[in-house]
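User: Can you predict the 3D structure for this chain?
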Amino acid sequence: MMRWLNANAGALQGAAAVATAVIALAALIGVKYQIDASARLAREQSARDIYREFLALSVQNPNLSDPQGCVAAADATSYADYVEYLLYMAEQVLDADDGWQPAVDDLFRRHAPAICAIDDAGLYAPAVSRRIREFQSRGCAAAPACQ
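Assistant: Here is the predicted structure, written as structure tokens:
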């Protein structure tokens, strides 16, 4: 047995080096997978948190959350901030998961005059810009314009 080990020592060392490299590569891939999964879970949790905050803001300000068309001049600044927060929330949730699209689309319908009034959708994250442009192309013809 010792004679065989001595005779094949070079080959065994080479095989051990290859096995070590393969194991190190597998560990590296596993670590990358864990980091990516952790980041995805953090994004998803952050999206749920921001949506929950948006819902709380909507409950506290029903005049802003469901404007029934155009917003009174006295509420214009608050409403503009509300819509910006809506768009920020949309960025966060769509970045986390495309499954939020129906909820975002529903909010855009509810706030059609404000969404239709956006001149430069390119200022927002790509997913939100796309949703704004799609909404504007099909949903703004029927939306009333606010003065």
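The first helix runs from residue 2 to 7. DSSP finds seven helices and no strands in the chain.
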